Amino acid sequence: MAEQVLSRERFYLEAVLETSNDAVSIINADGVVEFWNEHAETLYGIPSGQIVGKKMNAFFKKEDLKILELLKTHEYVLNIYHQPRPDKHIMISASPIFDEEGNLLGALSIDQDISNIVELNEKLTLTTSELQKIKHQYNEQNLHDPLSVIKGSSAALQAVKALALKVAKTDATVLIQGESGVGKELFAQGIHEASNRKDKPFIAVNCGAIPEALFESEFFGYEKGSFTGADKNGKAGKVEMASTGTLFLDEIGTLPLDMQVKLLRILQEREVYRIGGHSPIDVDIRIIAATNSDLEKLVQLGQFREDLYYRLNVVTLNIPPLRERAEDIPALMDTFIREFSYQYDKEPHEFTEGAMAACAHYGWPGNIRELRNLAERVVIFNDSPTVGLSDLQLLMPHLTEQTRQPKLSLEKDQLEKTRITEALQETYGNKTAAAKKLGISRVSLYKKIKQYGIE
């Protein structure tokens, strides 16, 4: 009867140990394996029938086994990192087994496989190291070329960047001209970063965003108690804040005429008076202005002071619109796609040739800002890893509508070239006869032959 009870208890115990999600092993006081569950078989690749009844150190290096240490130390182990084999990383909990009289019978070990976690951690460490390396390279690149954040390899863009870097080393006033969205402020920041003032303030002021009534206080600041509602301690203006650094005046064409006079005085005298103040404050600033307006035309209309225009127009940078540098679109799109993929924790998308061609043919009235907006919409709404023409039609219908016209024009040109070539062949190169056959003048025929490069 007692033997049946013991047999049943052993059966229950083995059933519990077998259902464990971890590798469970039991050795006796001599280090011989008494129990080896199914998960231990899977983890170590050793069948139970092969190891049970044999010494464990016949399958593992003795010095690598925590469970054998327990036979000497009699100490419990709880959630300790353990590597019994070079290819296995284990979290082990182990316990010595004693009888009722305190005699050592053996030890039990529960091994949890954490190899995948360790490998992932190693990959993460490697990736972090690579990211640090890339970041270092990026910072080094920025150190040598602060305009490297402005993406594009087109000749038009490179020429402007070269001029910007050249003028950055001076304190010359710079006027940046270009349509909305071409990146005028990026150029201004790049010039500042490449200058001797790079460690000093860069203060940006959008002249078009300040109410006319607040222009003076924003630009020049005010002394305490200058007017109702003023800060009791007074306040420094943007010009004063930019001292020793760079003052970037965006949308300079919107500056009111009375403020233009005061800005001209700052450029001439290099000093500023706060509202309510009686003493001048010396300022050492470099001025960079930007506009999407034709300042010369505004001068002619009497809306912009001629003397201020010439003060600002020491060096002019004309930023080309995106439609004039279509070859830069793939690099820009890739940059923005990666930026938003990281931001929204998504895999980067790739554009098909057709989709990228549509982007290249589009006019981009909003320039880089519009392109960036499209990239964000692609990352948010497109679930496929690739972006096709049909996807663009859903996200930005007018983009694909506009690109149809150049395609039709190209098809028409190709048809006309074919007709002229055939007419010349049929008339054995007689241009007068060919022109008559085509129903056009000989002068028109000569122009089209030159246009299409027909020999």
From TrEMBL:
Location of the Sigma-54 factor interaction domain: 150-380
Q: Using the record's annotation, list all stretches that form the PAC domain.
A: 74-126
PROSITE patterns, sorted: PAC (PS50113), PAS (PS50112), SIGMA54_INTERACT_1 (PS00675), SIGMA54_INTERACT_2 (PS00676), SIGMA54_INTERACT_3 (PS00688), SIGMA54_INTERACT_4 (PS50045)
Q: Which domain of life is it from?
A: Bacteria
Q: What Gene Ontology biological process does one annotation of this record name?
A: regulation of DNA-templated transcription
Tell me the GO molecular function terms.
ATP binding; sequence-specific DNA binding
Q: Which InterPro entries match?
A: AAA+_ATPase, AAA_lid_NorR, Homeodomain-like_sf, HTH_Fis, P-loop_NTPase, PAS, PAS-assoc_C, PAS-like_dom_sf
Residue ranges constituting the PAS domain according to the UniProt record: 9-64
Q: What is this protein called?
A: PAS domain S-box-containing protein
